[in-house]
Amino acid sequence: MADVQMPRLSDSMETGKVLRWLKKEGEEVKKGEPLVEIESDKANIEVEAYASGKLNKIVVPEGESAPIGAVIAEIGDGGAAPRTEKPAGPGEQAPAAEPEPKAKAVSAKAPKAQAARPEAHVAQADKAMAATAQQAADSGGEQYPHGGPDDRTEVGAAAQAALSAIRRPAAPENGERQRVSPVARRLAEEHGVDLRQIQGSGPGGRITKEDVEAAAARVQRQPASAPTAAPAREERQPTPRPKEDVEVVELSKMQTTIAMRLAQSKFSAPHFYVTSEIAMDDAVRLRQMFNEAVDRSEAISINDLIVKAVALALTKFPEVNASWADGRIERKRDINIGIAVGLPDRLIVPVLRNADQKSLKDIARESKQLIERARTNKAAAQDYLGNTFSISNLGMYDVDQFTAIINPPDSGILAVGSIEDKAVVKDGQVVPGKRMRVTLSVDHRVFYGVTAAQFLQEVKRLLQSPMALVL
Amino acid sequence: MAVLAMRDALNQALREEMKRDESVFLLGEDIGLYDGSFKVTRGLMKEFGEKRVLDTPIAEEIIIGTAIGAAMSGLRPVAEMMTVNFIMVAMDQVVNAAAHIRYMFGGGTKVPLVIRTPGGGGHQLGAQHSHSHENWFAHVPGLKVVAPGTPADAKGMLKSAIRDDNPVMFIENEGTYAVKGEVPDGEHLVPLDKNEVKRAGDDITICAHSRMLIVAMDAASELEKEGISAEIVDMRALRPLDMAPVIESVKKTSRLITVEEGWRSYGVGSEIASRVYEEAFDYLDAPVARIGAAEVPAPYNKRLEKIAFPGKADVVVTAKALLGKN
């Protein structure tokens, strides 16, 4: 038994009209023989039988319309009786004179029984379509409104090429380059992790970001098991006193990395220094007013003001927000400020991203979190990545001024001294003023003295007219 | 805010712009009396008359040529190509005329033209009706190319396209006309040059446009059940190509899949992948995976057709493979 359904003859067709049956009920039909002529919204088309057998029943008579997918006829396998209608269903007894509510007429129990009446099969198909539409809606969309829902669970041709690229087998051992993802290679360098010690977990044995992060964490954790009297840091491993009257302090992996990178910076980047004194009266007042206005948890520090001023100044000086990269200069689109944090045994520089786009409140909140995570050793690798310029502030330790070593890959670092009460000359009068000295260290390969001075002027201007930092 | 099917959102955009600006008119095959092959222009001829909604002969080169001339002389035509496959006979008009005129005349004349046309397959319409060719146009300086995947974007971008002074290829998809979504009432403009994160995630970035946006969103829901958090970037602005959200996302996730309904070779995904290699190489944890149609003329056979076009399963399995989870 096979149902003949209203075919979809054009993409915009919703219903079709039966113009002419080319076979009569009871007649034998062969698969491929013309069976019925259908009128769609575009054309009249002869439709072939999709199965052989006896045309048991014509459901939709000539001149009637039915929606796509509705049963319009039934072809039997020859001997079998038409699959219809013993009177059981309510539909059969419902002549035209007894108009039943539609909902009842299409009760799921006896769909076939109603098929003989045009309005009933229309209702049946409507219901089928509604169900399909609902199903499509449930599954998040109707992206296959005609071709059926996206029900494929096996990969098709679309993903084969991508998958074979991803799953390419691991390179053979003999001298072939180890497979390392770009981000893993970069992180390994930054954490001082030896890639040769890592087994890659990625497709084809590639070393991934996670592998390097895990290895870096292991390096940090390992010494923790050794009991130590040192109050703060576990990485310190006192060794037996040698003969000479000195104590030898072994460096942690991180200290080794810091030492290496600072030396590399100082000895490869030709540093020069520019110092400027900034009147901080207004900035101090602004901070006071700001902190009186907000909740204590949202309070800002002088350092937050400096971060914001530097970030805004960098937007005007892209040549400062740049790196020396093997004989070229890379200017960075993002402005990410490294904030140097001194801990008893190490110096770390968590990075505040896109500082130029953040409000003072956000800068204050985020830098508090960053510094806290760094202090408690909970920082993620991400926290240390992507700096484009750094600030080192020793203001709280009562220093007049100092010079800092550039934090790679930056080309500048601002060393910030304490704010001091000073006698200053203003309009010919000696008056009290608050002054802060900052020193900019510059990689002379990346930018030059005049730019450095102008950049510093801009930082100074912003801190001396600090409303710009709040806006 | 009303829930509208994509075709009705487009219809609303056309109606509003025609009311707002008398110089806006429509032309194309079967768009008037027949309401359009996909019913996008339903009721517009009745409302605005035969002077502003023109039924044309089946002659694509003449449709585009007429529209270019009208645009150069001050009107704002919106031409419909019944499917993007049919625009091939009018490529000379689109590329050599529409895209280049403003440049060749030193800015002396402009071509404020919109060509609306659906791509996409999956409906058993055979190789001459089933392809996606947005990359052909996205290759050409002088054209703007957009391909929205939600009804709200469809409305907002079509309105922006009509108001733009340059030729805009407005690529629709036969498979999304019935897709429903919330659409802001009245004035709603979406820029033609801004891509957007449509779903935030941490583990993997998936770029997709048009119908593939829906496929990608479905895949993301599936991946979520397996504990994988996918970020979906809607690449609705193909030219100029707004890469900013992709680069930002890749810097976070380190992994990228591109999904398009057209062929992979020389495709949208190829361009996105190249830009990512240029701008975010050091952030990648795996090669960029490109998903696209099988490299064959679209098959008519239903089963073959289903495996020839990308679906949810392709995205899910590829995402897991990139993460080393299968």
Please describe the structure with a list of short key phrases separated by commas or semicolons.
heterodimer, A: 471 residues, Chloramphenicol Acetyltransferase, 2 domains, 6-stranded mixed beta sheet, 4-stranded antiparallel beta sheet, B: 326 residues, alpha/beta, Rossmann fold, 7-stranded mixed beta sheet, 12 helices
Describe this protein's structure.
- Chain A folds into two domains: 136 residues, OB fold (Dihydrolipoamide Acetyltransferase, E2P) (Beta Barrel), CATH 2.40.50; 202 residues, Chloramphenicol Acetyltransferase (2-Layer Sandwich).
- Chain A is elongated, with a radius of gyration of 40 Å.
- Chain A contains twelve helices and 20 strands.
- Chain A is an alpha+beta fold and 471 residues long.
- Helices cover 37% and strands 20% of the residues of chain B.
- Chain B has two domains: 182 residues, Thiamin diphosphate (ThDP)-binding fold, Pyr/PP domains (Rossmann fold), CATH 3.40.50; 127 residues, 3-Layer(aba) Sandwich (Rossmann fold), CATH 3.40.50.920.
- With 326 residues, chain B is α/β, with parallel strands linked by helices.
